[in-house]
Amino acid sequence: MSRKQETHQFHFLRPCPSKDVLYQMVKNHFDLEADSYDQFDANHEKRRSYTAGINQLISLRLPNASKVLSVACGTGRRDLEIRFMAKQNYEIYGVEISGEMSKIATKNGIKCDHANWLDFKSDTFFDAAFFLYAFGAIPDSNDRLLALRKIKDCLAKNTPLYMDVLNIDDKNEWGLKIKNEFDQAELGKYGYELGDILYSKIGETKLAYWHYFSKQEIEDLLKQAGFKKINIQYIGYGKFPGKIVSSNEGAIFIEAFS
Ligand SMILES: C[S@@+](CC[C@H](N)C(=O)[O-])C[C@H]1O[C@@H](n2cnc3c(N)ncnc32)[C@H](O)[C@@H]1O
Predict the structure, then answer these.
(1) Residue 105: which CATH number?
(2) Is the pTM of this model over 0.90?
(3) What is the domain range of residue 57?
């Protein structure tokens, strides 16, 4: 069972809504989730172990930093956990599209700007950047490339970006179903890219957008964006949550250097 299979279901509207509508769906979804977001993560064992596993990997690798950028920081809870685990005292700068998430992050002590990362203008250089459990919410391949270029442009030379994305080849996730549906329903004709889904919580109707990646796809994007050294590991979610697993059964965890 996948992280979303247990709690969420996916749909395909035809045609695929425009990019602006997809951003709005994402924003609305997380505005509604904000108050219960951390609780949901804590109560959902697989999510808790998965995020804890990723937090630990980052905290062990993170170089000494004075400023860290967290794109799509949500409530900022994980940024604070990672800093604590890394035994560091850097400043955390968040950018968050959901006003409600952004308010909570600010209360939690993150310097958080309420903005779509694609529209955000940064005049600061950072020693590291995070894009955790969120890159799949960027609704098309052009914007995904722009988003990575923007991160690269505000990282000091040879500093790391840490991110994780859902793996379309994870046999414990929805990937196979998504690929089959894409081919059989000819979703490309309706404006979808392979890996796109619209999803809702089970029993609810409001939709949000997410994208699943292949290793090749995310590596190519990072290279095009100018990242040089790219290290990839697979972290279990549906099975062995938070543990390092093989390429066909986990989410993709990335460390990429500017
Ligand atoms: C699943 S949550 C993860 C939050 C946090 N990074 C964590 O790991 O707990 C995804 C977050 O990404 C934010 N987000 C999605 N697209 C964004 C964008 N284009 N710019 C800024 N934030 C975005 C959402 O509002 C949401 O808070």
Answers:
(1) 3.40.50.150
(2) yes
(3) 3-257
